[in-house]
Design brief:
The chain is of the alpha+beta class and about 150 residues long. It has two helices and seven strands, in the order ββαβββββα. The strands form two sheets. Strands 3, 4, 5, 6 and 7 form a five-stranded antiparallel sheet that branches. Strands 1-2 form a two-stranded antiparallel sheet. β5 (about 75-90) and β6 form a beta hairpin.
Length: about 150
């Protein structure tokens, strides 16, 4: 017997945000309809938050991302991207102001329900806000220490 990759099960969300198994055709229609409306790339956007330096977004993929068959399907994830201030000028005069770069933090948190995804998003936002606060405090302490050494 050879090891084969597990077929990815497909899911959609019902009107109450419950995860429902779906055929590939139904899943394709569901995801295509949300590509236009969503702001989180090509997935159904659950939540999106922007801090001073990061963009945190939680999405419904509709594909089971489990590596084995244990537990409920993992069909949501939260990602964090670093915002880099840039300016691009296009020939038509359009200027774009931010570039998003993936946050280098290993595996993305994954969830099996809308409520878990919303809770996970809130936890990640608090974590990133604390990271920003700690970083600013560390820079201020280093600057103050440098001024004391100059005197």
């Amino acid at each position: 017997m050879t090891d084969r990759p597990r077929a990815r099960d497909r899911y959609i969300l019902d009107e109450d945000h419950r995860v429902v198994p779906a055929s590939t055709e139904t899943w394709n229609h569901f995801m295509r309809d949300r590509e236009v409306a969503g702001t989180c790339y090509n997935y159904h956007c659950v939540a999106e938050s922007v801090t001073d330096h990061y963009c945190i977004f939680t999405q419904f993929t509709g594909r089971d991302d489990r590596v084995d068959d244990n537990g409920p399907p993992l069909v949501f994830f939260t990602n964090v991207c670093e915002r880099i201030e840039t300016e691009y000028s296009f020939p038509d005069g359009t200027v774009v102001g931010h570039e998003y770069v993936d946050f280098p933090e290993g595996d993305l948190p994954r969830y099996s329900s809308w409520d878990e995804a919303m809770a996970g998003h809130a936890v990640m936002v608090k974590r990133i806000e604390q990271l920003e606060t700690d970083t600013v405090a560390a820079f201020r302490a280093a600057a103050a220490s440098g001024r004391e050494n100059d005197e």
